[in-house]
Design a protein that fits this description.
With 468 residues, the protein is α/β, with parallel strands linked by helices. The protein is built from 14 helices and 22 strands. α1 runs parallel beside α9 and α3 packs parallel to α6. The longest helix has 25 residues. The protein is globular and about 65 Å long. The relative contact order is 0.12.
Length: 468
């Protein structure tokens, strides 16, 4: 039986990054992946392919709606959905091939098959051809990720009632896509098809979009999606059932007053979040405990109740984000090597890749109010940005929240062009516990979108913004 210092189960962003860092630190490392390609949900059916489709659909939308104003004349642009999906597959393949290269470069042994514990140090790998192999591992990192969730009364047939996985492989543009869930996944994939000509209706149980983020961001995103893409929204509605007959899907829902509605479309995308993937891992044989939400229980150092087994990413508590999983993978690897890494969970940014993009880090206004924290608010609209006017991207704003007494930045919330990239500046500033005035006094290149963060910081210090 081959023996390893560390075995990582799952090759998503958390898993493959953990494996690479372990190998860099001199550990003999194995990586187990049940699917034929490495990269997990993110690279194969999540982050990467959805961004490819978002970019393709944005090009088409701009050709139809904005090229003429830019002085570019294109007659009757058409959607070739098959080519769009094919390009997406190419992006995925290139990215996954890159992970294969990194495994070889770092001399990581890759096993393809379903990994499960025999006991706390022995792992069995069940392969596609029916054979099984066992390895021994001194330490193990569980990084098996998550799968799409559903709701009672919904049968996902993967044809008309679909998850994000199937939504990335459609062979036609829906006439009317009903999206259950007003979170990140539903809004991103809804945007793809709305840009390509579909009618999109969003049914959301809460009273607004992206409910875990600052409420101001959800309100602005709702306004822009309705104005630009014709989204319809049904808030405070509980889905009671979904039926599919032929090419028609019917969604039934009740509002908070008990009134019933019925929405008909040709596709229903179920995007109500994700659940940890912990099935058939033999956790009971290793003695690993789950919490009451099906997540693997860990301490503050991501160690399970079993002393040689750790867990990271979507299978443990916290935001289900690829970059959170990556940081946790590095954290555990360095911990195993005897180093003293740290994680600041409050400074993990969240991003929604709609257009305008949404990005945030730190505390929301709602959280600061709950804490009774006294704070200052500074904001700046993109319509006042010269760079945004030049690119015709004037929707949205930047908001900076700072401690009233110390001026330390407590949260930054953005909706607008390229905020997915802009938020990194806020993260760096907050990692070094910058004040709003620190950001305000940094020279930003002109004209850039990032000047809007400087202006919002100026507004937070003493209502000193220059361009509003």
């Amino acid at each position: 039986m081959e023996k390893f210092d560390v075995t990582v189960i799952g090759s998503g962003p958390g898993g493959y990054v953990a494996a690479i860092r372990c190998a860099q630190l001199g550990m003999k490392t194995a990586l187990i992946e049940r699917y034929a390609t490495l990269g997990g949900t993110c690279l194969n059916v999540g982050c990467i392919p959805s961004k490819a489709m978002l970019d393709s659909s944005e090009h088409y939308y701009n050709a139809v709606h904005h090229f003429e104003e830019h002085g570019i004349e294109v007659k009757n642009p058409k959607v070739n959905i098959k080519q769009m999906v094919e390009r997406k597959r190419g992006v995925v393949k290139m990215t996954c091939d890159g992970i294969n290269f990194l495994m070889k470069k770092n001399k990581i042994t890759v096993f393809t098959g379903h990994g499960s514990f025999v006991n706390k140090t022995t792992i069995e790998i069940a392969k596609a051809d029916g054979t099984k192999e066992q390895i021994e591992s001194v330490k193990t990192i569980i990084a098996t990720g998550s799968k799409p969730s559903s709701l009672p009364g919904i049968e996902i047939d993967k044809k008309r009632v679909i998850t994000s996985t199937e939504a990335l492989e459609l062979s036609e543009v829906p006439k009317h896509m009903i999206v259950i869930g007003g979170g990140v996944i539903g809004l991103e994939l809804g945007s793809v098809y709305a840009r390509l000509g579909a009618k999109v209706s969003v049914v959301e149980f809460m009273d607004g979009l992206i409910p875990t983020m600052d409420k101001g961001l959800g309100k602005e995103l709702q306004r822009v999606l309705k104005k630009n893409l014709g989204f319809e929204f049904y808030f405070n509605h509980k889905v009671t059932g979904v039926t599919s007959k032929g090419k028609e899907v019917t969604v039934n829902a009740d509002n908070k007053n008990g009134e019933k509605i019925e929405i008909k479309g040709d596709y229903c995308l179920v995007a109500v979040g994700r659940r940890p993937y912990t099935e058939n891992l033999g956790l009971d044989k290793a003695g690993v405990k789950l919490d009451n939400r099906g997540r693997i229980e860990t301490d503050d150092h991501l160690k399970t109740n079993v002393d040689n087994i750790y867990a990271i990413g979507d299978v443990v508590k916290g935001a289900m984000l690829a970059h959170k999983a990556e940081e946790e993978g590095v954290y555990v690897a360095e911990l195993l090597a005897g180093q003293k890494p740290h994680m600041n969970y409050n400074l993990i940014p969240g991003v929604v890749y709609t257009w305008p993009e949404v990005a945030a880090v730190g505390f929301t206004e709602e959280q600061l109010k709950e804490q009774g924290k006294k704070y200052k608010v500074g904001s700046f609209p993109f319509k006042a940005s010269g760079r945004a006017r030049a690119s015709m991207d004037t929707d949205g704003f930047v908001k900076v929240l700072a401690d009233e007494a110390t001026d330390e930045v407590l949260g930054v919330h953005m909706i607008g062009p390229r905020t997915a990239d802009m938020i990194a500046e806020a993260v760096v500033a907050m990692e070094y516990r910058a004040s709003a005035e620190d950001i305000a006094r940094i020279c930003h290149a002109h004209p850039t979108f990032t000047e809007s963060l400087k202006e919002a910081a100026l507004d937070a210090t003493a209502k000193r913004a220059i361009h509003i």
